[in-house]
Amino acid sequence: MHFSEFTAACENLRFKELTMATDALIPLESNPEVMNKFLQKLGVPTQWGVVDVMGLEPEMLSWVPRPVLAVMLLFPVSDAYEAHKQKEEDDILSKGQVLSNDVFYMKQNISNACGTIALVHSVANNTDKIGLSNGHLKTFLEEAKPLDAVSRGKLLEKSEGIINAHKELAQEGQTNTPSAEEPVNHHFITFVHSNGVLYELDGRKAFPINHGPTTTDTLLEDSAKICKEFMARDPNEVRFTIVALTAQD
């Protein structure tokens, strides 16, 4: 299985739920060094950081430092993804699903902000383990906690400290930096554990997705199974990147 490293960008389109125009950002690169600088700038201690997941087979997964707090998948947005996304939403609206009130989820309003939202989702659902320093992210999470997903997305638009950190770190990385207006078609999502359940957090979807049981010890392996499903829907694609928020040596 091949994983290519490329810019962590999300689909540059105007989402139906937007009620106001929002400037697009230059996307963050899918690069652990850049992502860790972003997290540390926002108050995440160096004992936690992002690492590459080099493959989804057991041996490759065994190389990832533990504990794993979150798994993030970067994938190409395709017709197959859009069709599955719609069917999944229709099925859930028809049959329902169990969602924990403890899951922190927010909508994405800003084009090319999916990398930042994936990182915020990763940290926000692990604040009991991550000792956040006082700063822009801690303030945002405190203000966002009582809000609904849509209001959290709007609050992020106004969070200059987080947006400015994104803009600063988006200029770094190994690849050529695209412009904010350049059309891209890749998207970043997050998998987290909450109250014994594996949740997929995608700011473009209507709600979090309950993927069934997991534990803090099996989060990586259970997330890998869902990542394989994404890949199976686009068998001719190789442009998938997976990173994890883990303990650092």
UniProtKB/TrEMBL annotation:
Pfam families on file: Peptidase_C12
Reactions the enzyme catalyzes: Thiol-dependent hydrolysis of ester, thioester, amide, peptide and isopeptide bonds formed by the C-terminal Gly of ubiquitin (a 76-residue protein attached to proteins as an intracellular targeting signal)
User: Carries keyword Oxidoreductase?
Assistant: no
Site described as Important for enzyme activity, located at: 202
Q: Which domain of life is it from?
A: Eukaryota
What positions are marked as the site Transition state stabilizer? 108
Keywords assigned? Hydrolase, Protease, Thiol protease, Ubl conjugation pathway
Described function = Ubiquitin-protein hydrolase is involved both in the processing of ubiquitin precursors and of ubiquitinated proteins. This enzyme is a thiol protease that recognizes and hydrolyzes a peptide bond at the C-terminal glycine of ubiquitin.
Name of the protein described by the UniProt record: Ubiquitin carboxyl-terminal hydrolase
Give the source species. Arctia plantaginis
